[in-house]
């Protein structure tokens, strides 16, 4: 198998059509009203990061719509709720602040992409603003925006992501407990795995 290794080789493959003027000009250096509105309605964001050796990670963050707080036209605050404490993304940010964000709104095929630099804070005032039912996030990822732009709908149209009639019947898929039991060859039973996961879901979402 041969691989593309240079930008020139890549551009030969993708020589037509060339990027349109609009596709280049749509990239903003700050959040406009449309970006702020999109973030305010989004209940879900993917955060891409990498450490200083290039080891990459993508983590999902989901909460009530508007959970990511726009502090100003160049700054977004994303709360970190209870999780598995692997801290892959947070540790990456300490080594390499560059992140890529992809905000989604259910049922909308277009997405909002943001690139920037991230830092971690435990600022008391900000954590209080991001509290849910009195429960503050353990920390907050603050992203300084370098680029923001809307992404077209083609990937979501091809995948039919939001069409229920294209979804698998959940009952035909293994539970997470079944998957973990197989992958970890653990003595704990599938039902024990699923029961502990259900307990975590019910008690530690926030």
From TrEMBL:
A Pfam family reported for this protein in Swiss-Prot or TrEMBL: PNPOx_N
Superkingdom assignment: Bacteria
UniProt-recorded name of the protein: Pyridoxamine 5'-phosphate oxidase family protein
InterPro entries registered for this protein in UniProt: Pyridox_Oxase_FMN-dep, Pyridox_Oxase_N, Split_barrel_FMN-bd
Stretches of the chain forming a coiled coil according to its record: none
Organism listed in the record: Mesorhizobium neociceri
SUPFAM superfamilies linked to this entry: FMN-binding split barrel
Domain called Pyridoxamine 5'-phosphate oxidase N-terminal: residue spans: 32-152
């Amino acid at each position: 198998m041969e691989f593309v290794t240079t930008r020139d080789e890549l551009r030969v493959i993708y020589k037509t059509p060339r990027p349109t003027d609009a596709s280049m000009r749509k990239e903003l250096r700050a959040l406009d009203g449309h970006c702020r509105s999109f973030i305010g309605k989004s209940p879900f964001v993917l955060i891409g990061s990498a450490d200083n050796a290039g080891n990459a990670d993508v983590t999902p963050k989901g909460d009530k719509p508007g959970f990511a707080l726009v502090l100003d036209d160049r700054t977004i605050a994303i709360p970190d709720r209870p999780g598995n404490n692997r801290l892959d993304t947070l540790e990456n940010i300490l080594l390499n602040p560059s992140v890529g964000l992809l905000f989604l709104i259910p049922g909308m095929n277009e997405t909002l992409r943001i690139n920037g630099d991230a830092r971690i804070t435990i600022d008391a005032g900000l954590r209080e603003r991001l509290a849910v039912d009195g429960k503050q996030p353990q920390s907050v990822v603050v992203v300084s925006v370098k680029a923001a732009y809307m992404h077209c709908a083609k990937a979501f149209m091809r995948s039919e992501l939001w069409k229920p009639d294209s979804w698998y019947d959940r009952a035909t898929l293994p539970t997470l407990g079944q998957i973990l039991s197989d992958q970890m060859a653990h003595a704990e039973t599938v039902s024990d795995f699923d029961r502990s996961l259900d307990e975590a879901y019910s008690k530690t979402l926030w």
